[in-house]
Amino acid sequence: MKRSEERWLIILFLAPTTLFMLLLLWAPFLQGMWMSLHRWPFMGEPVWLGLRNYTDFLGAAYFWDAIEATLIYSLSTLFQLAVALVAALALRQPFVRFKALWRGIMIISYAMPPVVVGAIWLFLLDPGLGMITHYLMAFGIIEQPIYWFAENTWAKWMITLVASWTFWPFMFLIILSALQAIPQSRYELAEIYGANLWQRFVVVTLPAIRNAILVVVILRLAFNLAKIEQPFTLTGGGPGYETSVLSILMYRFAFMSGDFGMAFTVGMFLVVMTAALILPFAWLFQRQVGRA
């Protein structure tokens, strides 16, 4: 095949993907950037503001509350990873019985819709009727009911806990799949050379699942930053703006205030935060793939 024919064949294969990216990714993104430079009401004509929306958002009293809530909610990924890794390693041990049953139990929370999970936890942590509050008081851990989702001290940590409980099975399944792909002969060889349990994990297990770990961290960070249904179900972004992650702020401005310009301004900050959190892990993943 001639080089010119190969070039056109490559263009032919890349054209659908390129068109998809332009129409469904870059066009809406550029439109959002343009809208963020206007006061863009739901009803009425847009008014050019330049960078006014950005300066107003940066100077708003709730700006740092939103950034802090988003960071805490997103970095719960690391807690989810720790739980998923321990659970996956535990199920790989030969002495564990009924592994299929345990796998089924562990993924139940991930199979539930996030809105349903939010409703369940609202009931469990209800200060008057909730089972968790009841037993915490019965065992003397707390002296009086705590309004978990209404107090500034607890609210953002509670939505993070619920998110972790809901989504860690996603990471668990991928890490478990990566563990099952490791040949048993590697562990046998390491044991022959006298490696203990920790050394076998560092030398054999971790290098084999490193790429899987990086992939699930990247995906979970992206999902956490985009999630709105569960935090919104639990707190609605309150009390005040304590749990108003950036995705909830976008919803508030767009559909409660009718200010689509400010909503897309918040969206631009969300894009920047997403890039700042994900790119280091993406770089590590690309580096690992390059070494393979």
Helix-strand layout with pairing:
Elements: H1 3-35, E1 38-39, E2 47-48, H2 52-59, H3 63-91, H4 99-106, H5 108-111, H6 114-124, H7 131-138, H8 152-180, H9 184-192, H10 197-226, H11 229-234, H12 246-256, H13 260-291
Antiparallel strand pairs: 1-2
Helix pairs in contact: 3-8, 3-10, 8-10, 9-10, 10-13, 12-13
What does this structure look like?
The structure is a single chain. The protein has 292 residues and is an all-alpha fold. It has a single domain, classed as Orthogonal Bundle (MetI-like fold), CATH 1.10.3720. 75% of the residues lie in helices and 1% in strands. It contains 13 helices and two strands. It has a two-stranded antiparallel sheet with strand order 1-2. Strand 1 and strand 2 form a beta hairpin. Helix 8 crosses helix 10, helix 9 runs antiparallel to helix 10 and helix 12 runs antiparallel to helix 13. The longest helix is centred in the first third of the chain and has 33 residues. The model has no long low-confidence stretch (mean pLDDT 84).
